[in-house]
From TrEMBL:
It holds the Pfam family Alpha-amylase. Coiled coil: none annotated. NCBIfam families: PRK10933.1 (NF008183). Residues 14-433 form the Glycosyl hydrolase family 13 catalytic domain. Belongs to the glycosyl hydrolase 13 family. One of its GO terms (biological process) is oligosaccharide catabolic process. Signal peptide: none annotated. It comes from Nakamurella flava. It comes from the Bacteria. This is Alpha-glucosidase. Keywords: Glycosidase, Hydrolase. GO terms for molecular function: alpha-amylase activity.
């Protein structure tokens, strides 16, 4: 790393607007709702807000299907309210990062509407159109140009009867993929990004950005993927970190940011990215993106059958994975740190314990562990309150297209509906999307109307108003870990050394820089544990405790013993 960057000591807070706060009683969160809550964010002490999509959208994929990149969805507000929100955040020293969703558009975007008119429309080549497989009739089973499955079930190709070709959609059929091979597409995207920067935004979180370059062959075809389970082939090797991806990102950086004054943040969401690729993406010398979201630690509880093949999570796997990323990006590049977001189960229900006796302490434990790593931490709305997964019943409780499509497909193939529901309840994205719990009133203070998705019944106990003035709350603990990154240089930029890699209860590591070392000790289990095997145990036992989530151990206990979900940070001055 060359000179220190501002985002190395920053913490980002993600807002998923549909579920954050509703200002007009239609049951859907909106910009006015966020505006009313900016002091919550200021109080927490975050530096940046990442706003999930608020653009006009048919909401087939809850806003990740955009029909106009340069406006605001009326359900969420208007450009005027957006500007007010931006100003209110800036007044409080908080930056705003927009979600950039340019692997695909909505099928209702003007570009696609034009492209689908005819084969020789000037916009036709802005998307991926291909004829049926040689010798087959369009629309017949197996006639798709490749065997790729969509992330949202079914084929990744949709037959367009009127022009007699298929179009590619890696996600829903209402999310056609843009063809980044076409220079006009790239220029239109860069112009749109400049327009938002001119408006005052501070950067972009880039949706599935490592999928924009597809492995197109010299003859224009796209290859089939390997079929390992189910009907469809795995297309991911043919569009993950594809052949021209680094060229595109360097070009984007040049065309959008070069010569612009200000402090910006770019983070690429990159399913399937490897450490070697992440080094390339985030090497400052290459000027592509500042950091990436990698996915390794959020797939450790998934078996060979993929996302819905839920397996038990082992702490040793989590440590091995996050530790590898810490080591991999130690010299060149930078990590993003997250336990959850709008696509993942709630952190405390997955990596912690949402059992009543462990929830609060495990939420604080997770905060301590994540925020003490080297990288830029992301807090997902409600995480700072210790919000949990939702007690979903039947399929009627779910809203997310991914869950609904999977349920229809799996039960259609004869899977037991109860088994399918079991996986959805644990892994489904709706867990993250139930409304933020502001208070203990009927709709948790989220809306005066009928919420678009049910409020978690545990809002009577878990809510912001019960926590913000309570020094023992999860919220107060988040405030402390965020502040620590601002005040302790070693937290932001110190080296990282994993300890006790094979211990199946304790997550332990050291952060160090010349003159200072921190030891982080966390018992990520429901049983007591003792960390006396760590190097220099005697010195650490005498060291100052900088942060803890539990009362001091009884004098009769060894100091390095940890109660269930107890986490402690020690600080020691060193000579070197
Ligand atoms: O949660 C997932 C489904 O298993 C992921 O594959 C997810 O779709 C992937 O992380 C990409 O996510 C992003 O792009 C999607 C959108 O649905 C997600 O909300 C977004 O974060 C398509 O735009």
């Amino acid at each position: 790393m060359t000179e220190p960057q501002w985002w190395q000591s920053a913490v980002v807070y993600q807002i998923y607007p549909r579920s954050f706060a509703d200002s007009d009683g239609d049951g859907i969160g909106d910009l006015g709702g966020i505006l009313a809550k900016v002091d919550h964010l200021a109080r927490l002490g975050v530096d940046v807000v990442w706003l999930s999509p608020v653009y006009p959208s048919p909401q087939d994929d809850a806003g990740y299907d955009i029909s106009d990149f340069q406006d605001i969805e009326p359900v969420f507000g208007s450009l005027e309210i957006f500007d007010q929100l931006l100003a209110a955040l800036h007044e409080r020293g908080i930056k705003l990062v927009m979600d950039l969703v340019v692997n695909h558009t909505s099928d209702e975007h003007a570009w696609f509407q034009q492209a689908r008119r005819s084969k020789d429309d000037p916009k036709r080549d802005w998307y991926w159109w291909r004829p049926p497989r040689e010798g087959m009739t369009g629309g017949d089973p197996g006639a798709e140009p490749t065997n790729w499955g969509s992330f949202f079930s079914g084929s990744a190709w949709e037959w367009d009867e009127s022009t007699g070709e298929y179009y590619l959609h890696l996600f829903s059929k209402k999310q056609p993929d843009l063809n980044w091979e076409n220079r006009e597409v790239r220029e239109a995207v860069y112009a749109m990004m400049r327009w938002w920067l001119d408006r005052g935004v501070d950067g972009f979180r880039m949706d599935v950005i490592n999928m924009i370059s597809k492995a197109v062959q010299p003859d224009g075809s796209l290859p089939d993927g390997v079929v390992s389970h189910g009907l469809y082939g795995d297309g991911t090797p043919l569009f993950t970190d594809g052949p021209r991806i680094h060229e595109y990102l360097a070009e984007m950086n040049r065309e959008v940011f070069a010569g612009r004054d200000g402090q910006f943040l770019t983070v690429g969401e990159m399913p399937g990215v490897t450490i070697d690729e992440a080094i390339r993406y985030t090497d400052p010398a290459r000027a592509e993106v500042d950091m990436v979201f990698q996915f390794e630690h959020v797939t450790l509880d998934q078996g060979p059958g993929g996302k819905w093949d839920v397996q038990p999570l082992r702490l040793t796997d989590v440590k091995a994975s996050l530790g590898r990323w810490q080591a991999g990006l130690a010299e060149v590049g930078w990590n993003s740190l997250y336990w959850n977001n709008h696509d993942q189960p709630r952190a405390v229900s997955r990596y912690g314990s949402d059992a009543p006796e462990h929830r609060v302490r495990s939420a604080k434990c997770l905060a301590t562990v994540l925020h003490l790593h080297r990288g830029t931490p992301y807090v997902y709305q409600g995480e700072e309150l210790g919000m949990t997964n939702f007690p979903f019943g039947g399929i009627g409780d779910f809203r997310d297209i991914e869950s609904l499509n999977h349920y229809a497909e799996a039960t259609g193939h004869g899977e037991d509906p109860e088994d399918v529901l079991k996986a959805l309840r644990y892994m489904g994205r709706d867990n993250a999307r139930t409304p933020v719990q502001w208070d203990d009133s009927a709709n948790a203070g989220f809306t005066t109307g009928t919420p678009w998705i049910a409020v978690n019944p545990n809002h009577t106990e878990i809510n912001a108003s019960a926590q913000i003035d309570d020094e023992d709350s999860v919220f107060a603990h988040y405030r402390r870990v965020i502040e620590l990154r601002h005040t302790e240089k070693v937290v932001a930029t110190g080296d990282f050394t994993m300890l006790l890699a094979d211990h199946d209860q304790i997550y332990a590591f050291v952060r160090s820089e010349p003159g200072t070392a921190l030891l982080v000790l966390a018992n990520m289990s429901n049983e007591t544990a003792v960390a006396d095997q760590i190097p220099d145990a005697a010195e650490w036992e005498r060291a100052e405790v900088l942060l803890t989530n539990a009362p001091s151990p009884e004098p009769s206990q060894p100091r390095l013993s940890l109660q269930p979900w107890e986490a402690r940070v020690y600080r020691r001055r060193t000579d070197g």
